Amino acid sequence: MYPNDGFRELERQECLRLLAKAPVGRIVYTRQALPAVLPVNFALDSDGAVLLRTSAASELARAIDGTVVAFEADEIDAATHSGWSVVVTGEATVVTEPAEHARLTRTGPRSWAPSPVEIFVRVEPELVTGRELVGGRTMYGVNLSS
User: Fold this and answer.
1) Is residue 2 part of a domain?
2) Where are the alpha helices (DSSP H) in 11-131?
3) Residue-wise pLDDT tens digits, 85-103
4) Rounded CA gap, 3 and 42, in Å?
5) Residue 93: CATH number of its domain
């Protein structure tokens, strides 16, 4: 048993700061009663909500609208055995209010695979958790990751 597993819990604000730097994350949802994970580009809204932009015909939008999902993003440095991971859990909803849709069209994420009709999905940040791995696992000041 190691007295220091090398992980540090992150506060909510630090989690959101790190998320704002990540270009891609993963949306975790249920598809046909099974877990599904899909990589997506995203942006954070001013209140910390995760914003996705997708095709209006997207299977993803239909599957997650009105459900609780998880969203995860991370950054890992394999050379230094360090990095972080943040998970946002909350209800996903398709943005239907016209003024909000217009605002997000101007300020929200840009789709990496544009389609003729796009919608925005908002994931409310009800639970935000994160961990940071700093320089691998250590015991009594000795780096065990090398």
Assistant:
1) no
2) 12-21, 59-64, 98-107
3) 999 999 999 999 999 999 9
4) 37
5) 2.30.110.10
